[in-house]
Amino acid sequence: MSRVQTIKVTESEAGMRLDRWFRSHFPNLKHGELEKLLRKGQVRVEGGRVKASRRLEPGETIRIPPIAEKPAEKPAPAPNAKARREDRDFLKSLILFEDESLIALNKPFGLAVQGGSKTTRHIDGMLAALEEDGERPRLVHRLDRDTGGLLILAKTRAAAAKLGGAFQRHEVDKTYWALVAGAPHPRQGTIDLPIAKRMVRIGEGKRERVVPAEGEDAKKAVTDFQILDGAGAGVSFLALRPRTGRTHQLRVHCAAAGAPIVGDSKYGGPVSRLEGVAPKLHLFCREMTFPHPKDGVPITIRAALSGHMLDSWRFFHFDECADATWPRDLQ
């Protein structure tokens, strides 16, 4: 392309992030190159400087500077019909709730939400199998690979913009279940402990970990908790409500409270190993309440306990249908 262009955002592109818009219109432009153009102000929306995460509105104009054409990369082979059908059947088996705007899945433990280094099978990579009328479901938040439970998908671009905004503004009330070694004291309360990513010594080397921290790089992290049941002094059934959404927040907070999540060797060490249960992370997204993207009316969705955590709950005779009622002073 040898000249400056101005392109108008269409109705079908409402709510799309600017970086994703470029990915759709200029697939050969790398993200780093786009970020450089944005920093220099060469890409503008409605004449103003913007960030890659900017959500677009119909009718807005995007200034496109001269971008060198590159040979089109060889597209990745599309999944064959059998693989696509298998992905569709698998995802359909996980659906807890579905309407015209959203899909709620009960994500299995050990399955990644997005791809990464050496990760070829993940939820995001299967979503094309659920495409309808040209709309592919979209992720609006994440769960760690080793965490199971409730995962919300948007069925349309407009729904994705509203749901994504609700998550960013902390308008989504989430309750997680965890099996922890020991018991926090008191039985219910709030952990207000800033955390940050730091390089820490592990064995003979150093690795990046999220740790309680102070300083400019420390981020506010707040978690409400309550014990719902226990089995002696060695194990507790904990309900957790994160008020902030930091990476590994619940795992770090539980370990800092002296009750690491069972199976969390990364933050709990040997204490997190418990005889009689699977040596896997016991953290599950049980429930979410959020404004519905269509009308803004709050909706609550719950996921039934599954996998190794269901086995552990039955081993300890915990209530699989327990309800965490958060006291008014924790609201």
CATH class of the largest domain: Alpha Beta
So how many helices? 8
* CATH fold descriptor of the largest domain: Pseudouridine synthase
CATH H level of the largest domain: which superfamily?
Pseudouridine synthase
Mean pLDDT: 90
Question: What is the second-level CATH architecture of the largest domain?
Answer: 2-Layer Sandwich
Strand content: 25-35%
Q: Please summarize the sheet with the most strands.
A: 10 strands, mixed
User: For the terminal residues, how far apart are their CA atoms?
Assistant: 54 Å
Model description:
- The chain has 331 residues and is α+β, with helices and mostly antiparallel strands.
- The longest helix has 14 residues, at 81-94.
- The radius of gyration is 22 Å and the shape is globular.
- 21% of the residues lie in helices and 27% in strands.
- The model has no long low-confidence stretch (mean pLDDT 90).
- The chain contains eight helices and 15 strands.
- The strands form three sheets. Strands 4, 5, 6, 7, 8, 9, 12, 13, 14 and 15 form a ten-stranded mixed β-sheet that branches.
- The chain folds into three domains: 5-64, RNA-binding S4 domain (Structural Genomics Hypothetical 15.5 Kd Protein In mrcA-pckA Intergenic Region, Chain A, Roll); 81-168, Pseudouridine synthase; 173-330, Pseudouridine synthase (2-Layer Sandwich), CATH 3.30.2350.10.
Give a topology summary.
Blueprint: E1 5-8, H1 18-25, H2 31-39, E2 44-45, E3 61-64, H3 81-94, E4 95-98, E5 102-107, H4 123-126, E6 138-139, E7 148-154, H5 157-168, E8 173-181, E9 188-192, E10 195-202, E11 205-212, E12 222-230, E13 235-242, H6 249-256, H7 265-268, E14 283-291, E15 298-302, H8 307-316
